[in-house]
What does this fold into?
Amino acid sequence: METLTEQLPRSTTLYTAAFASVALSILVWLLRRGDDRASAERFGIFVGLWAPTLLILGKIAEDRERTRL
It folds into this structure.
């Protein structure tokens, strides 16, 4: 049975997803601003909170990749 760290994607994929989530957060905030400003801000913050999680998972994957070399 594989552990969670063995199932992680490559670190570069996770780092790219983290930076994309920041850009997506800004984009969501800008595009949804006309509907309901408070809702747009909350949803933008929600998407922006994915970045730290993805960065941590990227670091775990990077460490895993280094130990396997």
